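thread: overnight batch results

M.L. [08:02]
morning all. the overnight job finished for the chain we discussed friday. pasting input first so we're all looking at the same thing
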Amino acid sequence: MEEQHVIGEGVVLDTRPASFLTRGLAFTIDVLVLVVLFIIVANLPIDSIFLSQFSDAFAILAVVFALVILPATVETLTRGRSLGKYAMGIQIIRDDGGPVGSRQAFIRALVGVGELWLTSGVVAIGSAVLNNKGKRLGDFLAGTYAVRVRVPKTPPVNLAPPSHLVNWITNAEIGKLPDGLALSARQFLARSATMHPGSRQSTGEEYMRQLSQYVAPAPPVQVHPEDYIVSVIAERARREASLESQRLDRASHVRERLERLPVGISNPEN
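M.L. [08:03]
and the structure it wrote out:
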């Protein structure tokens, strides 16, 4: 199953760790942007006497700005996306799924001076290859990693239980399903048609096994795993929609009663 990540607000990110190649291309684009900026700055009409007097200090400040301050500021303001990352459809997030802040961005940029620039990227490549999230050292120290944000859209799922299971699922008891399980099961239904038959069958059986822990009684007849999954997910959605509709109706009724004036008091608008 694909990795899911739940952020602090309870929102599940439909993202996957960015590949090493994608991160490399994003970094290359950012380097090209820096080169262009350097060429522009180098051709500005700056007083040569001023530069000769403060050449060393100016060079140090320029390096610090280009390699640390600028990338850290950009990542902070864009919540983890530089021009290269935006072009390649990736974003830096915290390990807990939240957006990066100035502290994480500064650590990544500072460590990047050593692992990206001073070692020509050798240290970053070695670190990224040795872990499944493609983290470089700066990511480990900052508690971040890169994710893909351009995930192909899955086709809509027709959440309607098969006719021979309608009576069973309508009268079945369905416990509170974990949000992550319900979401991943729904995503499985959306992509099942493109999966390898063997993988599709085994994954469907696993979701059916997990869902069956929250559903009673079992179906009266043997059912296909995907028929079972779609029945449970569809009925859960129907019941939640019904409860929400009832809640809104009650809130509307209470509001109407509160807005009524006591008997004997005329409405000043009349």
